[in-house]
Amino acid sequence: MYDELKFDNCNHSKDPMVGCALEGATGVLAGIKDISIVIHSPQGCSSTVSAAYDVHEIDFTKRKVACTRLFETDVVMGASSKLKNLIKEADSKFKTRAIFVVGTCAADIIGEDIEGLCRNIQPQINAKLIPLMAGGFRGNLYDGIELGLNALFPFIRRQEEKIPDSVNLIAPQANLNPTWWADLKWVRETLEKIGIKVQAVLPHDTSLEELDNAGLASANILLSHDAGYKFGLKMQEVHDIPLILSDIPLPIGLKNTARWLRAVGNYFGVEEKVEAIIKDGEDMAIDVLRRRGLMMIPRYRNCRVAVSADATMGIGLTRMLFEELEMIPELLLFRSPVSDSQLLLENELIDMGISPKVVFSADGYQIKQSLSENCVDAVFGSSWEYYLAEELGIKFVFDVFNPTNRQNYLNRAYFGYEGMLNFLENVANDWEMALRSKHINWEEYS
Amino acid sequence: MVGIANESVVFFGHLSELYQLAKEGKIETKLQGSHTRPCKFWTAMKILSGIKNTIVIAHGPSGCAFGVKQAYKLTNCRNSGSPYESIITTNIDEKAIVYGGEKELKGAILEVDKKYKPDVIFVATSCATGIIGDYVDAIVNKIKPKINAEIMAIHCEGFAGEYRSGFDLVFRQIVQLMDKPDSESRSRLANSVNIVGGKMGPERTEIETDVKELRRLIESMGASVNAVIAGNCSLEEIKQAPSVAVNCTLCLDLGYAIGREMLDQFNTPLNSTILPYGISATERWLREAAKHLHLENEAEELIKREYGAIRIEFEEAKKYLAGKLAIVEGHDAIKSLSIAHMLERDFGMRAVIYNFHPWSTQARETSIDYLLETGLDPEILITKGTLAFGKYEAMVQTENELMEYLGDLNPETTVYFGSSMSFPNIPVVDLNAILNRPRFGYRGALKVAKCICTALEYSFRPRSWVTKKMVFPENSGLCSAQSLTPKLAQDLPDCTVYAGRERGKCMMS
């Protein structure tokens, strides 16, 4: 199935590849329109909130963030009145319908009663106040996404009736595609094509009305294998909305896309429509590759590769690389703990009959060690892996995930049929560039 | 005061008057809740990231280390192809918050020493470990004999001080790594200088940077540079740093802390002047350095040679500019003051600094004291947008107030020194653009002169409606950091962000 690698000297020290809970939690809030964030923290944590807004590519003028800028005296004496005043100021200046009051490490540890404070001053505030403790020590980015999603429950109204053929899409941002919005768009458009309405995206560019009506959806689809699973289960429990498709890979590569579409088709009884999309998509993808990508075949066949990604991309990609491109996934390096997708990964590897070496919650050191100790010809990763692999003399490094050095003016999905081509186009270009060696003494050949 | 409606103006007067008002508490000097800067942890990390073969252990949750890694370490790789450098977190969780994180820290130090074999380990405290009171100093002292690396604790909790206090703290502390000079080391480095006040790490390799220009000038004078501290320097260079002939500040504001400390501790002379923008500032910088290097004659020859090389174009530009009004964007306080100094002294212009937040009068007190002493006292204009709640670097309001102010000004007699993402109807000179470098030294003066000439030469061309709409679309405006190239996007935490670009950003690296 897989061989989980273990490392010396890694029990207490970590070179982190993902941020903390604060980034995850505020990354959820940043996807909701017409809200503001009051962050109860020293000023540096504001950069983390900015990063969360960047994840959704939100215009600076549409960011409504205020920070209490805690200093030593606040930590010693408490800073409730500072927070109270800032909430009032944010309410009168931002004029948003809801304010999330977020406590970070400092406020969390000194025991600021954000919940009580919000309750007490709510009558004086126009916006709905939602307290959220998101100290970085509460976990990693993915734990933070769960915290943030949990904070959305007060906005989702309980509905007895459900709208047939409608879904909510959960955690689209927990995805390493540098332009993940395109994956979300592909899912939305594909569902609409087969008559499934997207009730709410939880969250990206989501209005409070959409959030309010999220309880009307007849199913929830998770767009990540890294975060949102617990929220999906809780939605099932609280709002009686089943979580579907969480036991198969996301639509990456031809086979996974077909599986995902067929699962949607079976659930909603639109098998015929789905089959038509699959046929057109596969024909198109293969036709394009026949005309423009034939060189893939000799280049990629039996090339030993490392995939350094999240579970969202990594699990789906493994099958595409192995079955469709005939590569050999030697190393799977997951930035996330893959805790909720462990079974899925195991089933996939058993089904394919391969036993790659695997690292969960891989940090920078472990990635470098794994690459140096295992024989791989190529690496699928981000600009991090690009620099690491370059140092180790690995020539083929595909810079396809976040953070990337690649410029994308147009959003490009990795999900679906065009998504596969987008991904392979990036790989093909990086491969081509890697062959332009600076080390050849060309004068010898003149 | 021309052009601008009085109700939009918060302050219009000279720097010295603003400074006085701030001291007397008659003008608000606190940053608004929406005007955040990096915290002490971030700024400390920015300096530590400029020391090679060191590992920083950020004792706290993973987010603090991860942010620094994305912002500084990745940027270092991107700038220069320098090797990937790790930054370590002890990754403390709720349990450690309750029971203390000392075990995690001890373990991390031992592991880091074994697996990375660094020259130095810096243990940096975060808010979380600062509050729970982990006894970091004791751990560090106790573990010293058990590891090969040198080790130092840096108490830089985010809440423990204003933004710039992290810079000062680390600069003062790394002096403890230095060796006391002796006659042998002094004589070996008698012809060398340190450039102090650098940060972050290797510079961009593909452009002529300001540091490279200073290095070239020093070497052209017949001296050499021992180290840029802390801009990609090694422990070895730091150790011998006090033995040089003189420390030259790269940035007056940042370099002063370490220069002063080295002067007090080791008697290493300090050449601390205004940022060497323009000719008069550069001359002062060079002559002061030459005094300690005993290269006064060489410096004078160099000055003559360098000026000779730019004279024609420089004087041509000067003709255009003498007597004209310069509006200088003031987000980066020290840089805007240095540019104002250059425009007044070298080009004979009248400079007005726009959007200078009164907070800077306290945050940059030492530097402002110095500048006022040198007789630099430019006019400052502060409009309501600067002090409004909402991110002032990213507010359409300040842009509108600027337009209002410029409304009645003659485009033929006014030049705007600021971001090309502002769209006044007067020539714009953007000294932060990557191709407009170096800005220091004589070549910098020439570069500035050329930029001005180009801006004037093409002032007949209206600003692009496309770029204007990109920055200021209807009902919104000012894009996000995603709009930056990956190379620049990670630079954000230590700059005043305007449309995701480094408007007013200190571009020392």
Automatic annotation (TrEMBL), chain B:
Species the sequence originates in: Methanosarcina vacuolata Z-761
Q: Which domain of life is it from?
A: Archaea
Query: What GO MF annotations does this protein's record show?
Result: oxidoreductase activity
Nitrogenase/oxidoreductase component domain residues are 39-456
Which SUPFAM superfamilies did the record assign? Helical backbone' metal receptor
Q: What is this protein called?
A: Nitrogenase vanadium-cofactor synthesis protein VnfE
CDD domains, per database record: Nitrogenase_VnfE_like
Q: Give me the segments passing through the membrane.
A: none
Q: Name one Pfam family in it.
A: Oxidored_nitro
Which parts form a coiled-coil structure per UniProt? none
